[in-house]
Amino acid sequence: MMKKGFILLLVLTVAIAVSACGAGSSSNSENKPAVNNNKDKNEPVSSADEDIVPEEGAKLLVWDGKDGVPFLKEIAKEFTAKYGIPVEVEDQGGPEQLEKMKTDGPAELAADIITQPHNDLGNAVKSGFVLPNDFYEEQTKAEFLPAAVEAVTFDGMLYGYPRNMETYALFINQDLVGDAPIHSWEDIIAFSKTFNDVKNNKYGFMSQLTSLYWTYPYFSGYGGYIFGNKETDPADIGLNNEGSVQGMKFFQSLREILPMASADATDDIKRSLFQDGKLAINLDGVWNIGEYSKLKYKVTMIPLPAMPGSDKEPVTLAGVKAYYVSAYSKYPNAAKLFARYATTKEALLKNFEISGFIPARLGMESEAAIQSNEMVKAALKQLENSQPMPTIIEMGQVWTPVEQALELIWNGEDVKQSLDKAVEDIKTGILTQDQ
């Protein structure tokens, strides 16, 4: 009897061990860590030293827009060499990715990792397209800019693996500005009054005028905001509060130095004038650093100065591009491992060198490649004083009413009435959306 009992116990022990090993190779497995066996056995293993165990036979498909593909192809080669997991990279724009997820996901044709701007995260989560960044949650929160972490979090759950951050600041053609000081809005206005030559399409300052994305600093510079409670409370709209009204009055006054219809200050026109040496100070996106660095003029960049009469630093809206693991992936562990690998410090530095993307990681400003680029350093400083665009679905009801209000305000209509109407329309849109 003792011998039979021993044999039964041995069989059960082996069965349990086999079951535990098999769990790591299942697509529905728990995220069990693969411990680095080269470590000193007496040294405690921390979560930072662990990697998720990829599924056996895993292969991955990654989607990203054209500008992100060159880096992904390079990092995919490294990843495959290290982990033996094949990775295919396809060129798919952000909006197309979410559309394809609707059909390709259920058909098991969708990518394992998608690349999205953070402001589409709410829709992606509500649609059930993405998995939480759970295994690497603590590392992500510790290693990335707080604004980036906040941007890829929805309803308190971290989803994204942040790649880069984008915002805007002031590009300055030093050949045109010369020795004129550009340290304040008063300086910008004074310079523009002397530089402008409207008949010859020469302007001291230009900005896109009809989008909340570009005009948000005029709101935030005096205490305005979109939604309360860190952009999560749609019942609290601050786009017509006292600070917003004051900011829009200053915005309206800029018509004196930018005498054109708001519809004419498009990104294309503005960029063309800047490249042709007819625009001296250009409020534009930091993603243009590489392009503007190649101009025949000396171009510098500075963060936005405080608004006149305000002691608040104007906050810009920021976008965060991140990788997300598809909820349809057959190999979620391998996909999480790749998303983590593509956002390590070394990987994001390589991405910066290949694509010019400004890393969303902490401490990157000390890297030599970034230290040597004054415009990137200025962009990082502006990013420190930026906030992610709201991810809540109600944000979709904000853009059009504010755009309409901005056009009215630029054309000289009453600021308070225009903003009140915009907020009323936003509230109506939110109520209609919820029904």
From TrEMBL:
InterPro entries: SBP. Keywords: Signal, Transport. Gene3D superfamilies: Periplasmic binding protein-like II. The keyword Transport applies. It comes from the Bacteria. Residues 22-50 are annotated as: Disordered. Residues 1-20 form the signal peptide. Residues 24-37 have a biased composition (Polar residues). PANTHER family: MALTOSE-BINDING PERIPLASMIC PROTEIN (PTHR30061), MALTOSE_MALTODEXTRIN-BINDING PERIPLASMIC PROTEIN (PTHR30061:SF50). Belongs to the bacterial solute-binding protein 1 family. This is Maltose ABC transporter substrate-binding protein. It comes from Paenibacillus oenotherae.
